[in-house]
Amino acid sequence: MDIYFRQTWTDRRLSFSIPGQDVLSLSWLSLNLVWKPDTFFTNGKKSHLHRITVPNKFLRVRYDGFITYSMRLTLKASCPMHLRRFPLDSQKCPLHISS
So where does this one cross the membrane (predicted)? Predict the structure, then answer.
């Protein structure tokens, strides 16, 4: 599946006060300077981060330290299939996320 995986959290250390500026959109190069949760997909088998000319990542910081982090991923995940009523069955395949 192709997804835009977005995470939000608050880091008060990044709060700022710039008159007329409530949100800062930062380059993907700034990601190495900001703490990020170590999030992973527990049932993921393979993933690919899209890097067309630069990595497809986005970071936005609000004045109060509220952070929005987004990245585009292609994932392959394992999913148990129940084929008792094949071809009339339906499947649910949740994506399990952990940190």
Answer: none
Structural contact between residues 14 and 73, judged by C-beta atoms closer than 8 angstroms: no
Q: What is the pTM of this model?
A: 0.74
Q: What's the pLDDT tens digit per position in 55-96?
A: 788 899 999 999 999 988 888 888 888 788 888 888 778 888
pLDDT, mean of residues 19-27: 91
Task: Give the C-alpha separation, 93 to 86, whole Å.
Answer: 16
User: Six-digit token pair at 15?
Assistant: 């709060």
Rounded to whole angstroms, how far apart are CA atoms 84 and 74? 29
Cα Rg of the chain (Å, integer): 18
